[in-house]
Design brief:
Length: 499
C-alpha cells in the first residue's frame, strides 16, 4: 500500500508541497516563494511559468527528502489561491499573458459598468457572488480585450482558460486534462452554482467563448494521472479545491452549521450549509463547498479584511512590537483595554457593514492609555470583527454556532483565541495540525483513491491541539460589545462625511 498522499498547496506568495501519512501527520514539507509582479498601482500579476516551476520543484524536493518513489504516493490533491486567472495556448502551453491575481483591481471599472448595466442582482443570484473585480470573469475579459490576437485565438478554440488548479493539472498531465472542480468554478463568477454549469448569459455579457473553459468535476475526482516524465511515474491526481474550501474540509467541517475561521492577513470564515445554497441578507457570499460526489454542498463565506495585518501594522508601522507573537505578552500585561477600542478599517469595512469609505478609528483614549492597552485593543478587534461575521452567518442560515474551529498564523495567539471564545460565548477549537488547507486537499484526493475509506475515518485524524472555553460573564461581554458597537458607529459616521 502507498505510504503518502501528496498535497500541492499553491498559495498567493508561495508554492508548497506536503506529504501526509494515513494519520494526517506531515512527513515532508517543502516551500518556495515566487515573484509578485506589480506593473501599476493596484495591479498584481504572477508569472504562470514560475507558479508551475516552483510547484514542481517543491514536489520533487519533498519526494527526494522523504525518499518517496512515485509508487509510494497514493494520490495528489491540489489546493490553490482562488480566482487568479491564466490563459494559455492549447498547442504550446505558452501563457498569453501573466496570471492576473485575485487581488488585482484593474477591472474595477468594468464591474461598476456591470452595475450600471443592471446585471448585479441577476449575476449574484446565479453565482452567489457579489460582483467584484476579484473574481475571474472580468480578468478573462481584460486579457481577451488587451492582448494582441487573444480574442481571435480564443474564438478559434486555440486558447484555454484556467484558475491555478486547472493550470497545474494541465501541466502535470502534459496537456492531457483541462479540468477544474466545483469550488474553483464557483469563484469565476461565470458558474451557475444552482444548475452547476457555466452560464451562457454571463459568458455573453463578458464576451467569453465557452470553448476556453475547463470541464467541471467534484472536488474529489480522478482528474487524470501525472505524465510519467513529470514526477517519474503516473500518479493519480484525485482532488482539487480552492484554498478556503479545502481548509473547511481539512477541518472536518462536514456537518451543516459547522464553521471554521482562518486567521491570516485577513480572516476567512466559512460555514457549511449542507445542500442549501443560502442567499445572504448581510452581504456574505454563497459558494460551493468541497464535496466528494456530484451532489454538491454549499457554504456561506465572510471575510474580515484586516486581521493579522493589524498585528503587522503594530510591528512595522507603529513599531510597538518586534514580532507578531509578542503581541500576546503585551496584551496579557493589562487586565483590559481601559475602554479603548480600535476599529482597524484600514481599507473599508466588509460584512456586515459594507462601508468602503471607512478608515481605521480609535476611540476611548484617556491619559491612562498605554501601549499595552493599544496592543490589546488591536488583538481584540480581530475577535470582534469575527464575531460580527459569525452573527451574520447565524442569522442567514438560521442556525446557532456550537463551536468554532480555527487555523492560520494568528490562531497561534492564545490570548486572541481565549478572547474569541469569551466574546462569542462558545468553544474555540484549535487542531494540532494547523496545515488544514493542504490537509483538506490530501483528504479529497485520498478519499477518491480509497487511501482513506470514508469521512468518518478522516474525522478520526482530527486532533484537538487546544480548546478555549468561555469564562467571561454575560454582563462583561454585553458591556464590551456595547463599546465595540459604539466604536463601529463612530467609524461609520466618519466615513459618511467622506461620501
Ligand atoms: P497568510 O496566509 O495570510 O500570509 P498566515 O496564516 O501565514 O497568513 O498568518 C500570518 C499573519 O498572522 C500575519 O499577518 C501575522 O501578523 C499574524 N500572526 C502570526 N503570528 C501571530 C501571533 N502569534 N499573534 C498574532 N498575530 C500573528
Amino acid at each position: 500500500m502507498a505510504k503518502y498522499v501528496m498535497a500541492l498547496d499553491q498559495g498567493t506568495t508561495s508554492s508548497r508541497c506536503i506529504l501526509f501519512d494515513k494519520q494526517g501527520n506531515i512527513c515532508a514539507m517543502e516551500q518556495k516563494e515566487f515573484s509578485q509582479i506589480y506593473p501599476q498601482p493596484g495591479w498584481v500579476e504572477h508569472n504562470p511559468m514560475e507558479i508551475w516551476s516552483s510547484q514542481l520543484a517543491v514536489a520533487m524536493e519533498a519526494m527526494a527528502i522523504s525518499g518517496a518513489k512515485p509508487e509510494d504516493i497514493a494520490a495528489i490533491g491540489i489546493t490553490n489561491q482562488r480566482e487568479t486567472t491564466i490563459l494559455w495556448e492549447k498547442a504550446t502551453g505558452r501563457p498569453v499573458y501573466n496570471a492576473i491575481v485575485w487581488q488585482c483591481r484593474r477591472t474595477a471599472d468594468r464591474i461598476d459598468q456591470l452595475g450600471r448595466d443592471g446585471y448585479a442582482k441577476k449575476f449574484r443570484d446565479k453565482t452567489g457572488l457579489i460582483p467584484d473585480a476579484y473574481f475571474s470573469a472580468s480578468k478573462i475579459a481584460w486579457i481577451l480585450e488587451h492582448v494582441d490576437g487573444a480574442r481571435e485565438k480564443a474564438e478559434a478554440g486555440e486558447l484555454l482558460f484556467g484558475t491555478v488548479d486547472t493550470w497545474l493539472i494541465w501541466n502535470l498531465t502534459k496537456g492531457a486534462v483541462h479540468a477544474t472542480d466545483y469550488t474553483n468554478a464557483s469563484r469565476t463568477m461565470l458558474f451557475d452554482i444552482h444548475r452547476k454549469c457555466w452560464d451562457q448569459e454571463i459568458l455573453d455579457y463578458f464576451r467569453i467563448p465557452a470553448c476556453i473553459l475547463p470541464e467541471v468535476h467534484p472536488s474529489s475526482y480522478l482528474f487524470g494521472h501525472t505524465d510519467a516524465s513529470v514526477l517519474g511515474g503516473e500518479i493519480p491526481i484525485a482532488g482539487a479545491a480552492g484554498d478556503q474550501q479545502a481548509a473547511l474540509f481539512g477541518q472536518c467541517c462536514f456537518d451543516e452549521g459547522s464553521v471554521k475561521n482562518t486567521y491570516g492577513t485577513g480572516c476567512f470564515l466559512l460555514m457549511n450549509t449542507g445542500h442549501r445554497a443560502i442567499d445572504s441578507g448581510s452581504g456574505l457570499l454563497t459558494t460551493i463547498a468541497a464535496s466528494t460526489d456530484d451532489d454538491v454542498e454549499y457554504a456561506l463565506e465572510g471575510s474580515v479584511f484586516v486581521a493579522g495585518a493589524a498585528i503587522q501594522w503594530l510591528r512595522d508601522g507603529m513599531r510597538m512590537i518586534r514580532t507578531a507573537a509578542q503581541s500576546q505578552e503585551y496584551a496579557e500585561g493589562v487586565p483590559d483595554t481601559a475602554d479603548v477600542y480600535i476599529v482597524p478599517a484600514f481599507a473599508g469595512m466588509g460584512a456586515p457593514y459594507w462601508q468602503q469609505h471607512a478608515r481605521g478609528t480609535i476611540v476611548g483614549v484617556t491619559r491612562g492609555c498605554t501601549k499595552e492597552h493599544f496592543i490589546r485593543a488591536t488583538l481584540e478587534s480581530i475577535a470582534y470583527q469575527t464575531l460580527d461575521v459569525i452573527r451574520a452567518m447565524e442569522q442567514d442560515a438560521g442556525v446557532c454556532l456550537s463551536h468554532l474551529k480555527v487555523d492560520g498564523g494568528a490562531s497561534a495567539n492564545d490570548f486572541l483565541m481565549q478572547f474569541q471564545s469569551d466574546i462569542v460565548g462558545t468553544q474555540v477549537q484549535r487542531p494540532k495540525c494547523i496545515e488544514t488547507t493542504a490537509l483538506g486537499a490530501a483528504y479529497l484526493a485520498g478519499l477518491q483513491v480509497g487511501y482513506w475509506k470514508d469521512r468518518a475515518e478522516v474525522r478520526e485524524n482530527w486532533q484537538l491541539g487546544k480548546e478555549f472555553t468561555p469564562v467571561m460573564t454575560e454582563e462583561d461581554r454585553a458591556k464590551r460589545l456595547k463599546g465595540w458597537r459604539r466604536a463601529v458607529r463612530c467609524a461609520l459616521a466618519y466615513a459618511e462625511e467622506d461620501e
